[in-house]
Amino acid sequence: MENSSQSEIKPPAPLAPAPASGFWPQGWWKLMETRIGVIPLPVFVVLIGVVGYFTVVGKLPPEISMMMGVMALFGFACGEAGKHLPVLRHLGAAAIFATFIPSLMVYKHWLPAEVTRTVTDFTKSTGFLYLFIAAIIVGSIWGMDRRMLIQGFFKIVIPTAAGTVLAAIVGTSVGAAFGMGVHHTFFYVVIPIMAGGVGEGAIPLSTGYADILHKGQGDVFAQVLPPVMFGSLIAILLAGVLNFIGKKYPALTGEGRLQPGEHDDMDPQQQEISPHMDVGHIAAAGMTVLSLYLVGLVIYRVGSAHGWSLPAPLTMLVLAVAIKLSRAVSPKLQEGSYVVYRFFATAVTYPLLFAIGVAMTPWETLIAAFALPNLVTIASTVITMVVTGFVTARWIKLYPIDMAIVNSCRCAQGGTGNVAILTACDRMQLMPFAQVATRIGGAATVFFALLAYGRMH
How many structural domains comprise the chain? Predict the structure, then answer.
């Protein structure tokens, strides 16, 4: 008689079929996981073909889908090239390549004229940069620790103010030593570097100088623009160097946090949507971010009509901080805004830098600064600003590297420069502080410079 236990033994389950060993689908899946930036390699090849076709026929559609495809294709290609350069990849080469290589390509006519025209028109007409800044500012603020947030804004005043004064003294002294003259160096080299960029700095500065001197604004603008451009480039390079130092000496950096003991309400390393986060909350957060910027735009327009103005991104920053501190937005919406921030930081940064390089970074202007006295004066000004931020940070218990990066944004080419600087050092979380340093610091610089210039003439 058979053992009853043996009768209960079941035959072994059939083995699962082994995956196909050929190219399809495993080899193809591997190709799809090989990316240029965030673009799968086969998709990248398809984009080359599509953009090439429309360029050859001379009718590149200006619609947003095509423009995003063009900017992503070139932006990630330039960024990826910079990421693979020995040594320089640790010094922000990806951001520099994505911004300045397109500028060189336009200058040398290596970029098809149709691409240059449509990207320039799209960038200038849509204000795409401000959508990016809105997503970065609100998402990063709402992901920060509430208590440390307000402390951070107050604490950065000391390093930025000290950096401004010392950079002005050192830069002017260096320029004078090269025979450029104290007056010319201070007003036409040092001040433009710290004026807050082109739109908020160089233009009002040159307009004010021209009115005081009773001469054409275009001539003055041509003098103050090169220091703005080259100062921003040096700031990008220094941000990359600071990031490299931070990797070697981790005690000196908070990796995007300003203060020891600070923590983010949202995990800065979060790459995926958490289980309780749904698409509805992400969409709601996106609309909230957009609405805050639009409110800022209304305040800007109303203020301009009455003789005063506050830039829309700055107004939006104040509103975002107030909402964060008052707990006016639910935790789920805050997390949704952080996902929006992560998306823009990951997927939009390099396409945007390409657009900035094509539409807003004239190569000939950058080259105009390539005279030794100018170069040394500009470099000494920016380096002094950064070193001052690094040193003073220890006195007020901030991370030296992260504060030095914020100080470097005093020399940024406006919002575009902030994006490039923070991309070069992988610290986009610092955007709110960078905006304060660039915009408020720049506005104060322009105001006092014009006041002093008027008294001297």
Answer: 1
